Amino acid sequence: MNPIDIRSPFRETLHRLTEDCRPVTDGENASYIPSLADVDPDLWATAVMSPEGDLYAFGDVDHEFTIQSISKPLVYGLAIEELGLDTVLERVGVEPSGDAFNEISLDANGRPVNPMINAGALTVHGLLQEKVGGRADDLILDGLSRLAGRRLDSDREVGEGERDTGFRNRAIANLLRSTETITCDPLQVFDGYSWQCSIKLNVCDLATIGATLTTGGVHPVTGDRVFREETVQWILSVMSTSGMYDSAGNWMNYVGVPAKSGVSGGLFGVIPGELSLASFSPRLDEHGHSVRGNAFFHRASSELGLHMMRVTGRPHGALRHRAVVDFDEDGIQDTTLLRLYGDIDFCSYEAIDREVTRGAASGTGLFVNLVEVRSLAPKAKELLEELLMAAGEKTTTYVHDPANLLDHAACSAPQWVDQAEIREYRSDQPERRPPRKLLRRRDARKPGPGRKPAAKSTAKGSDSRRKR
Ligand code: GLU
C-alpha cells in the first residue's frame, strides 16, 4: 500500500508559531564568556513532546547549547531522590525571591531562599558532593542523561570559561561554607557547579527532559523512571514560583506554565500530564531569558490556551453517563446506571459520590461501570471503595471493573461482574442472574418516594438495554 501524506494541523500550528517568532531579534547574547558571546545569535529552534514521546521539532534542532541554569531544577530533583526531601529542605527553601539569579542572599535560617537562584543551586550541588564524598559529576551526568534518554556530555570550553569568570559564584560558595549551609570544600562546589552549567544538549533533548517531567518522572520512550511523582511535584512547584527569577510573577500570569531558562538561550516549560515545550535562541533580555523563546512561549500560551490556571469548566473525568432505568417493563425505575471515565481524582470523584448516594437514596439498585476509567488517584480509589462498600450493603450494587482498578478482595459488598451491560449480564449468564433481593423489592413496590413510575420518555427512551 502506498503511504499517504495528510496534513497535520498540530505540527503546522507549531511550525507557524516558530516562524512567527523568527523576526524577534531584540536582546543580546550572554557576554561574560566568549564561547557564549560568539554563538550565532540567529540560531532558532523549538520542540514540543507529548507524554507518549511524539516529538515535533523545528529550526536548528541539532544545534547543541549548554544547559546553564536549566540544570538547577533537574539537579534539585536528583538531590531529592538521593538524599530525601527533608534533608534538601533543611538546606534550601522554596520561597520565590524576586531577586536576580546571582543575588547573594540567605533567609533568616541561613538557607538560600530557593534552589533556582545560584546560592540555592550551589547548595544543592554541594549536597550531592557531600553525599558522594567528592565531585558529583558522574551522578549528575547520569541523571540528566537518563532524563534525556541519551548520553549527554559537557562543553569543556564553556566549563572553563564559567570557572575563569565566576568570581561571584565563588563568593557565594564561600558565603555558604561560612554559614555551614554547605560543609564540603566551597571551591570544589564552585568548580562542580560551573561544570554542571556546561552540560551540552539540543532543543529535542530539552523537550524530552520536559516530557519526562510531564509524565511524572518516567521517560516517555525508554520507560525509565528517573524521578518519583512526588519529586516531580517539587521540581515543577519551584519552577512555577522561582524558575524565571525576578520575572517569575509576570511569567506565571502571562504564560502560566512552569518553566526554566538558561543564559545560553535555552528555555523549557512543562504542562503536567499534557505537553512539554522547549526553545533555543541566544539573545537575552535583562532578566537573562531568551527574548525570542519568551515570545514563543507567550504566543503559544495565549493562542493555544496552555495556561495552567485556565478554567475550562470541564472535569478530567468521572461520570460520562447516568441513567435510571426499568428493566422489567413495569414502569418502575429500578437501577441507576453510572458510566465512569477518564482520570478520576478527589475533585472529580464528587460527582460519583453524589450520584451513587442519590441513586441509593431513591431506592434503586446500582450498576457502576469503570471500563472507561483510565486512572484513579489514590484518594479517589479509597473513597470509591468505601462508597461502593456502603452502597453494596444497602442496595444491589453491580460493579464492572475489568482492569481491577479497585481492590475487589478488600471490597466485598458490591457484586463484581464481568459484563459491561447489565442487560447482557442478566441474559447471557442466567446462572448469575441478579439475586432475588432485587426482584423481591419489586413485589412490594408501590409508587412512593424513589419508586415512582418512570415517565414514558425516561422509562423507554432510547436506552435499548432496558428490554430483555
Ligand atoms: N552559569 C550561569 C551562572 O550561574 C548560569 C546562569 C543562568 O543560566 O541563569 O552564573
Automatic annotation (TrEMBL):
Q: Where is the composition biased (Basic residues)?
A: 434-444
Which positions in this protein are listed as binding substrate? S69, N118, E162, N169, Y193, Y245, V263
Q: Where is the composition biased (Basic and acidic residues)?
A: 423-433
The top EC class is hydrolase
MF-aspect GO terms: glutaminase activity
Which reaction is this enzyme known to catalyze?
A: L-glutamine + H2O = L-glutamate + NH4(+)
User: Which residue intervals make up region (Disordered)?
Assistant: 423-468
Q: According to the UniProt entry, what is the EC number of this protein?
A: 3.5.1.2
Matching Pfam families, A to Z? Glutaminase
Task: Could you list this entry's UniProt keywords, alphabetically sorted.
Answer: Acetylation, Hydrolase
PANTHER family reported for this sequence: GLUTAMINASE
Q: Which NCBIfam families match?
A: Gln_ase (TIGR03814)
Binding partners and assembly: Homotetramer.
Q: Which family does it belong to?
A: Belongs to the glutaminase family.
Q: What is this protein called?
A: Glutaminase
- What are the top taxonomic ranks of the organism? Bacteria, Bacillati, Actinomycetota, Actinomycetes, Mycobacteriales
